[in-house]
Amino acid sequence: MFLRASWQGSDLALKLQSQTMFDYEDDAQKKLDGYTVFDLVGTYQLPVGSLGFGIQNLFDNDYTTVWGQRAQILYAAHYDAAAYDYKGRGRTYTLNYQVKF
After folding, report:
1. CB burial readout 62-97, b (16+ within 10 A) else e
2. How far apart are CA 35 and CA 62, in angstroms?
3. Contact indicator for 52, 41 with CB cutoff of 8 Å
4. Higher model confidence: residue 1 or residue 59?
5. What is the CA radius of gyration of the chain?
6. Over the stretch 58-72, which tens digit does the pLDDT of each residue have?
7. How far apart (Å, rounded) are the C-alpha atoms in residues 87 and 94?
8. What's the CA angle centered on 29, arms 77 and 31, to 5 degrees?
């Protein structure tokens, strides 16, 4: 599930978005743990060009990706399940400058 909220002024635009994966249990009683990640992104219009910025995983949520959880279920019989604990990215910052011509 995705949620978005945005605000736009004359020079500044901001967007807060979230991505949620709900807890899931299939017919074979295999359970996946859900998680929610929030991102904050924005742009600021400069006299020449614009400055973009963002914070992904705003609250630095510690989670294992859906694939990591599935891999632990599928391959744990052959290898240690911890080998497949694929964590999602922690808080990540981005900054860019853009000029359109």
Report:
1. ebbebebbebbeeeeeeeeeeebeeebeeeeeeeee
2. 9
3. yes
4. 59
5. 19
6. 999 999 998 899 888
7. 20
8. 80
φ, ψ at 91 (rounded to 5°): -60, 130
> Does the pLDDT of residue 74 top 90, yes or no?
no
Here the tokens at position 97 are 């400058």
Cα–Cα dist 14/12, whole Å: 7
Rounded Cα gap, residues 88 and 50, in angstroms: 29
| DSSP structure string for 39-86 | EEEEEEE-SSSEEEEEEESTT----B-HHHHHHHHHHTTTS-GGGG--
Higher-scoring residue by pLDDT: 53, 26: 53
Question: What does pTM read for this prediction?
Answer: 0.81
Residue 98: what pLDDT? 97
How confident is the model at residue 77, as a pLDDT? 78
Given CA atoms 85, 91, 93, 94 in this order, what sign does their dihedral have? Answer: positive
